[in-house]
Amino acid sequence: VLHGDNLVDEGPVSEFHGFYELYGPGNKMFIKTVTHRRNPVYQAILPGYAPEHLLVGGAAIGATTCFALKKKIPNVTNVLITEGGMGRLHAIISMHQPKAGEGKRAIMLAMGHTNLLKLIIVVDDDIDPNDWTQVEWALAARMRGEEDIMIIPGVKADRCDPLEKDLTITKVGIVATRKPSDSLSPEKFIPARAPERILAQVKETLDRY
């Protein structure tokens, strides 16, 4: 039973970013009966900057954000909330052949939908968002700094952001995708690698040893 007027001072809370937060008093819960099977196992998520805490929350945030974006931009293929971004604050959005301006639109929609997000990178769907080396390659090969970086100060933040000030934060969006104009000079952007047929033959030969 929860009573709105029965509060208790919880003290410092170990948050996802690895620091303590003071959220003030919380509701006290009264439990009269607990039913369980014999020899029960009770699983609790380790709080703070712990993989379980980060990944469980990050998976849910990524799924709901992706679902919301697909309603507005159908060629969004995936939204990954990164573990390094504390499972809450950083996202990588994958898109299939985004048109001019769609990457920035996806960034703004994601920030509007998910209050916690403060750094978002948009990549093409040929980049694996789980592979940071590929994401960094996209930043190096496809991002034009003068037009692809958005810096938005004074945006509403969540109270648990470690850098929030007066519940605001500076948010950053980066578009690291191919541009429609790149097709005008395709020879510049052809991947320099051996044909897939040759790579397959080499792999088959090496597997024999």
Automatic annotation (TrEMBL):
Pfam families linked: UbiD, UbiD_C
GO cellular component: cytoplasm
GO molecular function: carboxy-lyase activity
Superkingdom of origin organism: Bacteria
SUPFAM superfamilies in the cross-refs: FMN-binding split barrel, UbiD C-terminal domain-like
Domain 3-octaprenyl-4-hydroxybenzoate carboxy-lyase-like C-terminal: 58-175
InterPro entries in alphabetical order: UbiD, UbiD-like_C, UbiD_Rift_dom
Domain 3-octaprenyl-4-hydroxybenzoate carboxy-lyase-like Rift-related positions: 5-49
Family: Belongs to the UbiD family.
UniProt protein name: UbiD family decarboxylase
